[in-house]
Write a structure and sequence with these properties.
The strands form six sheets. Strands 1-6-5-8-9-10 form a six-stranded mixed β-sheet, with no helix packed on it. A five-stranded mixed β-sheet has the order 13-21-20-16-17, with no helix packed on it. The relative contact order is 0.17. It is about 5% helix and about 45% strand. By secondary structure, the protein is mainly β. The chain has two domains: about 5-120, Immunoglobulin-like, CATH 2.60.40; about 125-255, Immunoglobulin-like. It is elongated, with a radius of gyration of 22 Å. A hairpin with a 2-residue loop joins strand 2 and strand 3 (about 30-35). The protein has two helices and 21 strands.
Length: about 260
């Protein structure tokens, strides 16, 4: 598993000295940057289909097995000091197809700008509570629907079970549950055929009387920790950031808890 970093990475084993012109200006990439400034960057973008928020996408530089993580606009950066030759970037995110592109570095400079990498949506989730208004002590019966929107079978795989998970949020903070699989030792997988919808049942007893009355949002997914462990493992170094990015891509159900 590649180490994942959110910051710009410099790999000493593959770096080359920056090429400078006679005027003392580093001519790298597509801008001229003075030597006294921050080193120039190779910038790219990875974008998720049907999404307006693109944070948390993993972008791997395959030849040196290093990952970068995109910001909310899908942007990522590499220091423009890679060794000459062919390089491959691979972008991936749970419930979306991966995307790859190759680029060539000559004399420390990419020959062309990086194209946007577009990841096509594969699975769409819908969260359906049994009603919209509850009081303390009620049980919320939640139906999670998973739809394969591609033209090929898609398999989701969890290292533990159950793989269906939900989180309840109040004013942007998780107050119940989380988008992590259960702690059962048995692995679990689900295969969805093209256009197929499968339903999964979840329950939540509102037994925390410290919860404020008001609107709560319920998020639910089939965790895919077998393929994307860093997004669904509480022990991951970047679990908080990567797991948080999932909430920005999911459509929740809104319920009200009354007095």
């Amino acid at each position: 598993m590649a180490r994942v970093f959110t910051f710009i990475l410099l790999i000493a084993a593959v770096l080359l000295p920056l090429a400078c012109g006679d005027d003392g200006v580093i001519k790298v990439g597509f801008d001229e940057v003075n030597e006294s400034t921050t080193p120039p960057e190779v910038q790219g973008r990875a974008l998720l289909e049907n999404m307006t928020e693109h944070s948390g996408i993993s972008v791997e530089l395959e030849e040196i097995d290093i990952n970068l993580i995109t910001d909310a606009e899908g942007k990522f950066s590499l220091l423009n000091e890679l060794a000459d030759g062919e390089w491959t970037l691979r972008a991936s995110y749970p419930f979306f197809s991966s995307s790859e592109q190759s680029f060539t570095v000559v004399k420390g400079i990419p020959e062309t700008e990086l194209d946007n990498m577009e990841l096509t949506q594969q699975i769409v989730f819908d969260v359906l509570p049994d009603k919209l208004t509850y009081t303390y002590g009620d049980t919320v019966f939640i139906t999670l629907e998973a739809l394969n929107v591609t033209d090929e079978p898609i398999t989701l795989y969890s290292l533990t079970s159950p793989m269906a998970a939900f989180a309840v949020r109040y004013e942007g903070t998780t107050v119940v549950g989380g988008l992590f699989p259960g702690q059962g030792s048995q692995a679990q997988e689900v295969t969805l055929n093209p256009g197929e919808v499968q339903q999964f049942s979840l329950t939540w007893i509102i037994d925390n009387f410290d919860l404020e009355p008001g609107e709560y949002k319920i998020f639910a997914v089939l965790t895919n920790s077998g393929l994307y462990p860093d997004y669904f493992s509480p022990s991951s170094d970047l679990a908080a950031e990567l797991n948080e990015s999932l909430f920005q891509k999911l459509t929740p159900a809104t319920i009200t808890i009354g007095e």
